Amino acid sequence: MSLERRYRRLMLAYPGPYRTGHGADMVTTLLEMAEPGQTRPSRADAWHLVLSGLRQRFRLPSGRPLVLLAAVLITLIGGAFGAAAGSWAAEQTFTRLPGDSGVEALTRQVSGGGSEFTVSRSASPWWTGMASGHIDSPGWTPEAAQQRLTAAGWQVTAIERRDGTSFTMDPATGTGVEEKMRGAAFTAARDGLRLDVSGYVSAERGSISVVTWPADTGATRPLLVAGAVIGLLVGWLLAAAGAYRLGRQSVARRRLGVALTGLAVVASALPAFAFGVNVWRVFRYSDSMVFTVHSALNRGPYWSYGTPWMLLQLAVAAVVLAVVAWACVSVRPKAVSAADTSRAGSPAPAGD
Amino acid sequence: MQEPTFLILASVADQPLHGYGIIRAVDELSDGDVKLRAGTLYGALERLAERGLIEVDREETVEGRLRRYYRITDSGAGALAVEIERLRRNAEAAEKRLSRRPKLSFGGAA
């Protein structure tokens, strides 16, 4: 391989548009600097060239405070979306929840009989999905439930007493009737699933509920952090590359690119903020629920003033706007390069 | 202004130069102290061009290779003059202080 080819290969560390603009001139200079008869770049020169190229990828156009502000915002948004992607990846390692018949079987195993089985599933904006089975079983005791579960291989925690009273309206007299209830709760775990069992039993009724969760595999936090770091990096690199691409466009296209980028940032602000709050929840709470970040896109509303799918709609809109903005600034600017070469004394074929 | 940037700007003060020409001129200006690498040179050229202190003068093709010449702009010449003045002031002030140093010591001990 010739020295020129080796230099051209090292120049791949530089961003594409930079190579198009400066690559040929830079290679000329590198070759003029080379010793006579030199066939390969020195190790130090090669390293320096690659590091300079990587640094160029991280650079923003100098003296542009608004570009810097936009880059910081895009970086933060990238980090938030990256954390959500990491959290989604972590959720793929969770054990899949059983179907409705499976939930019913588990609930009946806990209740040891009973009637009026109901099941509901919920996907909250804060934590991973769960299935909740409910059954009425008057003679229920937590000790018997634990025996059935341990016989089936479940690990159970100590029983927590939650005795209380219930008030029901007597349909005949219309007066409230106070009734003593025996309450108990415990959790059981097996094969990557966790059951939150609770039961309230009075003289005639026994309200047993079994909430089935996937157990936290421990993947959430590391994958979330990895996703956030990658997202921050990608956000900054995209902003830096976009800023340089934008600068090469015609005025009209530049305005369009700025407007699209602005809209993308505005659209992604709320989802990114919700992701950020969910990251805080993952690290703040470690018991009970299995908190996730990407769940902010589930049917909500995340905030009381939002619509059910607002965050998902905003996130999709932001991604579409960002892709269109990128396409807009990445178009090869014909008019601008023609002006450049006409200004230069003798036009020459530019770059590689 | 960093030293390589200052020297690059100074090297194109009187005539347009191409990349290798700038590297040689900087070597000469600094009496061999500053040997620019291509990555440093082009990084500095980009920053100087973004700030409007230099611009492309012309492009030539020599033996099938593209050579781009850079020239200083009026605002670049102004910035260079300001920097020269600042360096001169600092050097003179430093020199004045050094000349007032009591010459009492014998040998190297201060």
TrEMBL record, chain A:
Q: Which UniProt keywords apply?
A: Membrane, Transmembrane, Transmembrane helix
Q: Where are its TM segments located? A: 66-90, 223-244, 256-280, 309-329
Instruction: Supply the name of the protein.
Output: PepSY domain-containing protein
Recorded source organism is: Paractinoplanes ovalisporus
Upper classification of the organism:
Bacteria, Bacillati, Actinomycetota, Actinomycetes, Micromonosporales
TrEMBL record, chain B:
Task: Give the Transcription regulator PadR N-terminal domain ranges.
Answer: 8-81
**UniProt superkingdom:** Bacteria
Stated name of the protein: Helix-turn-helix transcriptional regulator
* Species, as recorded: Paractinoplanes ovalisporus
